[in-house]
Amino acid sequence: MRALISFLAPLLVAATTVAAQTPRPGVTLDRKHHxxxxxxxxxxxxxxxxxxxxxxxxxxxxxxxQAFSWxxxxxxxxxxxEVIDSLGRPLRRDLLHHFTLINLDRRTLxxxxxxxxxxxxxxxxxxxxxxxxxxxxxxxxRLALYIMWHNxxxxxxxxxxxxxxLVWAPDNQQPRPLSTFxxxxxxxxxxxxxxxxxxxxxxxxxxxxxxxxxxGWLLAAGGHLHDYGEAVRLEDGTSGSVLVHxxxxxxxxxxxxxxxxxxxxxxxxxxxxxxxxxxxxxxxYNNTSKDTLRDVMGEIMGLFVPDHPERWPTVNYGxxxxxxxxxGYHAVDLLKALKSTPVAEH
Length: 346
What we know:
Elements: E1 26-30, E2 35-45, H1 56-59, E3 63-69, E4 74-84, E5 96-107, E6 114-120, E7 126-128, E8 133-137, E9 142-149, E10 157-170, E11 178-179, E12 181-186, E13 197-199, E14 202-211, E15 216-225, E16 229-236, E17 242-247, E18 249-250, E19 256-258, E20 262-263, E21 271-273, E22 278-287, E23 293-296, E24 298-306, H2 320-327, H3 333-336, E25 343-345
Parallel strand pairs: 1-25, 8-11
Antiparallel strand pairs: 1-2, 2-10, 3-9, 4-7, 4-8, 4-10, 5-6, 5-9, 12-24, 13-23, 14-22, 15-20, 15-21, 15-24, 16-17, 16-22, 18-19
C-alpha cells in the first residue's frame, strides 16, 4: 500500500452528488462536463476480520480494476469517487481501503518508478484543484486503476462498484493552468520492496534525507500515517528548521481521524525548494498500546511546480526499479500490451 492520499487534496472541493443509476463498468469520456468516468465492478466482498500476526496489506492485495489510455489533451485536476451498489446507490465508504491511479508513462521525481497521479482511502472522497492548476496529460498515456477493498463487517457485500470521475481542464482553456506534479516523500522508501516498518510501544521518530533534483515551489502538502501516528514534518536538512508540519487528529484509541492538509501557496508562491539541498522528512508515532505496530507508514504528499518542467526525468521502461515496482502491482504485462477498456464518449 503506497501513498494513499491524492496529491490534489490540499486544494480540495466538496464531493459531488451523483444521481443513482445502474452502473456500467468501463471508461467514458464526458467532454461537456470535462470528466473521464471510470466504473469498476462488480466486486463481492467477504467479511475480513483481523488475523493475529498478519497485516491487513498482506491479506488484501491491490486488484487491477481498469486499464485504459487517457483520451484527451489537457490537465488532470483531480477526482470525485463513490462506492455504490448494483443500483447505483451509495454504500459505506469504509468498504474501500484505498484506490491508486498509476500513470505508466510518467515517472516520479525521486525514483524511476511509475507516477501515482491520484490515490485515496476513506478520505478524501473528492479532491479537485482550482482551474488554475493541474497535472498535464496527453492522449495515449497509459493509466491503470488499482483497488484494495476491506469489508470489516460481519456480513458479505455483493455487487459493489467504485465510480471515479477524473476531472480535467481542456487544452484550450484560458488562462492556461499552471502545470503541477505530484511528489511523494517517504521515510522508508524501498521501491520493489515494502515501504512499511514496525513501531514498538512508546514515542518514536523515523526520518530520511530527501534531495530534490529540480528547483521549484511546493504549493501544498498533506501526510499519510497509520493509527497512533502523531505527525509528519519536513525540515531543512542543514539548519533543522521545520518547513511543513502536518498534525494528525487522533482518537482516544489512537485511531487516525483526520490528517489536515497544508496549503502553502495561500498568500504567495508556496515553499521554495532548491535542487541539491538536503531536506529531512520525519514521521512521529506515539504507540500507547502494549504491542508493536506492524506495517506502518510515514509520508508527505505534495503539489510541486518545477522551475523547468521540461527537465522532469523521463521514463526508462527497462529500469530494474521501474519493473520491480510494477511487479508489486502485477502490472508488467501492461507495458507489452495494454488491455485497455475502450473509452466511449457521450
